[in-house]
Design goal:
Blueprint lengths: L1 E5 L5 H10 L4 E2 L7 E4 L5 E5 L4 H7 L4 E5 H7 L4 E6 L5 E8 L14 E4 L2 H11 L4 E4 L15 E6 L3 H5 L2 E10 L1 E6 L6 H16 L2 E9 L3 H7 L7 E4 L7 E9 H13 L3 E7 L6
Parallel strand pairs: 1-4, 1-5, 8-9, 8-10
Antiparallel strand pairs: 2-3, 3-4, 5-12, 6-12, 7-10, 7-11, 13-15, 13-16, 14-15
Helix pairs in contact: 7-8
The structure holds adenosine-5'-triphosphate (ATP), 1-O-pyrophosphono-5-O-phosphono-alpha-D-ribofuranose (PRP) and magnesium ion (MG).
Pfam families: HisG, HisG_C
Subcellular location: Cytoplasm
GO cellular component, one term: cytoplasm
C-alpha cells in the first residue's frame, strides 16, 4: 500500500504527525525524499504536492491519499472514495469581490471574469447557479487579480479571513467547506489493509480530547461513583488484588472538559487513588 501525503506546505507537518500518532512511524523519511518506508513493511509513504495527490491515487501511483477535500473535488475524478475526515486544514473556498466594487451577488457575475486556482470547482458552482462567467486559472496570488483588472471576482481559500481583508475583498458566497481527508482508489477502498489504516487514523481522532480515569472505590460506594461518571459506555469495574473484596478499581474514558468536575464528584462519592492519563488511540 502506498499513501501519498503532502511533501511541503501547511499540510505536511500535521499529516506526518497524525501518521506517527496512529502508529505508522516513518523511517528514513529525510527531507526532499520522494518515498519513505514505515514500520509496517506493507505501507510506503509517497511525498507529493497537495494538489497532485488525488491524481496520484486515481492513476495508481498511490493507493491512498491524504490532502484537502478542495483538491479532491478539483481533481474531478470518480475513481477516488473519501474515507475519513481528518479534521485539520479546515478552510472555505469562497467567491469574493472588491469591497468597493459592484459585485454583490452571484448573479452579478454573468458575463464577468472570475480568477481561481480551482477552475473545475468554480465552473461547477456557477453551473449550479445558472451563471456563465469567464473563468481564468491562476496558480497563486489570486487575491491580486481583481486589483489589476484581470478579474472581477475570485474563488479562493480563506480561513482566518486576513488575506481577503488585507486585499479589500469581501465574501459574496460560499463555494465549498474543506478539511483534510483520507481517500482511496475505488478498487482498493475495501482492502483489509486500507481498513486497517483507516481505523488507525480514526482511533487517533477518537482519542482527541478524551482522558482515561482510574480510581479505587469501596464496593459499597460503587453505585454512587458509577452515577457521577459521564461518558463513553459504562465504566470498567475490576477487583483489586489484596483489596479483600472490599475495594474495586473503576476505569472510564471521560471528555477532557468533564475531568475536573468528575474528579470532585467521584471523590465525594468515595473514590480514592484517582489517576488521569492521556489516551493515544481509541478504537470504538
Ligand atoms: N489558510 C488556510 N487554512 C487552512 N487550510 C488551508 C489554507 N490554505 C490552504 N489550505 C489547505 O491546504 C491545502 C494545500 O495548501 P498549501 O498552501 O499548503 O499548499 P500549496 O500552496 O498548494 O502548495 P504548493 O506550494 O506546492 O503550491 C489546500 O488545498 C487547502 O486544503
Ligand atoms: O484567510 P487566511 O487565514 O488569510 O488564509 C487564506 C490564504 O491562505 C492560503 O495561502 P497560503 O498562506 O497557503 O499561501 P500560498 O498562496 O503560498 O499558497 C490561501 O491561498 C489564502 O491566500
Ligand atoms: Mg497555499
Amino acid at each position: 500500500m502506498r499513501i501519498a501525503v503532502p511533501n511541503k506546505g501547511r499540510l505536511h507537518e500535521p499529516t506526518i504527525d497524525l501518521l506517527e500518532r496512529a502508529g505508522l512511524h516513518i523511517e528514513n523519511g529525510a527531507d526532499r525524499k520522494l518515498y519513505a518506508e514505515t514500520v509496517d513493511p506493507d505501507v510506503t509513504i509517497l511525498f507529493a504536492r497537495a494538489a497532485d495527490i488525488p491524481e496520484y491515487v486515481a492513476d495508481g501511483a498511490a493507493d491512498l491519499g491524504i490532502t484537502g477535500l478542495d483538491q479532491v473535488r478539483e481533481a474531478q475524478t470518480d475513481r477516488v472514495e473519501e474515507l475519513l475526515d481528518l479534521e485539520f486544514g479546515r478552510c472555505r473556498l469562497v467567491l469574493a469581490s472588491p469591497e468597493d466594487g459592484d459585485i454583490d451577488a452571484v448573479a452579478d457575475l454573468a458575463g464577468k471574469t472570475v480568477a481561481t486556482e480551482f477552475p473545475n470547482v468554480t465552473r461547477e458552482f456557477f453551473d449550479d447557479a445558472g451563471i456563465e462567467p469567464d473563468i481564468v486559472e491562476v496558480t497563486g496570488a489570486t487575491e491580486l487579480t481583481p486589483h489589476v483588472e484581470m478579474a472581477d471576482a475570485i474563488v479562493d481559500i480563506t480561513s482566518t479571513g486576513t488575506t481577503l481583508r488585507m486585499n479589500n475583498l469581501g465574501v459574496v458566497a460560499d463555494v465549498l467547506s474543506s478539511s483534510v481527508h483520507l481517500f482511496a482508489r475505488d478498487d482498493v477502498a475495501d482492502d483489509p489493509k486500507v481498513r486497517e489504516i483507516q481505523t488507525a487514523l480514526s482511533s487517533v481522532l477518537s482519542a482527541d480530547g478524551k482522558r482515561y480515569l482510574m480510581m479505587n472505590v469501596p464496593r459499597d460506594d460503587l453505585e454512587d461513583v458509577r452515577e457521577v461518571i459521564p461518558g463513553l459506555g459504562g465504566p470498567t469495574v475490576m477487583d483489586v488484588a489484596n483489596g479483600e473484596g472490599e475495594k474495586v478499581a473503576v476505569h472510564a474514558v471521560v471528555d477532557e472538559r468533564d475531568v475536573f468536575e468528575t474528579i470532585t464528584e467521584v471523590k465525594n462519592a468515595g473514590a480514592s487513588d484517582i489517576l488521569v492519563t492521556e489516551i493515544e488511540r481509541l478504537v470504538e
